[in-house]
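[Automated response] Your request has been received and processed.

Submitted sequence:
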Amino acid sequence: MNNSRATPLWVLTSRFVPQTCGIGEQTQFLLGQLRERQGIEGGVLVASPQWDAEKAPVLPRSQRWTGLAPPGTKVLMLQYSGYGFAKRGAPVGLVLQIKRLRRERPEIRLVTMFHELFAYGPPSSSAFWLSYVQRWVALSLAKQSLQVITNRAGSARWLENRIPAHHERIHVSPVFSNLGEAPDAPPPSQREAHLVFFGYQAEQWDAGFTGLRRVIEMLKPARVTILGRSAEIPAEVFGGIVVTRTGYLGADDVSAILRTARWGLVAYNPEYLGKSSLLAAFMAHGVVPLLVDGHLPLSEGLERNVHLLAVNELGSIVPDLDAISAAGQTWYRPHKRENTAAAFAKLLLGT
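Generated structure:
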């Protein structure tokens, strides 16, 4: 570790341990990599009264938007998700305090990682009516930031179109795997015909399990592992194939399972694949992703039959699984944990 690069860094987030969530885990792993690989020590401020003060400094409810940068802070990294900071996803108070901080302490480098910009939906949803305010909040925070990072190219383009002067300050970094990385995992051809997916995803994309039934019929896997919360899937869907339901497992245990899997089902909006830590985990372990909506336009430079397979095309092509696995690992490599930390370090330190 290069201690000469140590700097008073604070991360402001709405999620952190001991409660688990994607953003909290990303923050925890990123800070670990910054410390171990880049010599940058950092602390965490959590804008919630519910976290354990021994785990991370907590902003009391009465000070929710005050004290954003303790004395001596040189860099403040904001891990932003609107619904984490405010019930309706529009933390106007955060904008006001950030503006005040930039005015009173201009020497602090503010770097914002946008995990999301705004929500949208039909007129019957609250997201539709609040979207304008959410957009204003996101743009205001981006304007106040010396550097901006998004997890998808579409978000970066949206910001660039509205604040073109910030073009060179806006960067794209798809999320890394929260479930470990296994660059030395064997190629699919050397693995058992093993299919994995998370139970909650099966319920999200396939209410009648007709799609899952078709996947099973096309792949004919030797076994299936359902990770996490188990969906109520009728046994006949699997046609007698051995099914293991793991329940909740730690990241290391899930990583060990992924090292043995040939395919992994992903139910995620193709326009937002840079946000999917599940897709990142599959690629980090050499698992071939089966994208449920893979027939739709993909994002982040991903291509069907190159980096992943589309569920609707199963049976119509004979893919080279080893080549797809290798291409997925190549796509993932620039934003694996170590490389993400190196890229963030440059933006945080201004080097």
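Summary generated for your ticket: The longest strand covers residues 75-80. The chain has two domains: 3-176+336-349, 188-334.
If you did not submit this request, please reply to this message.
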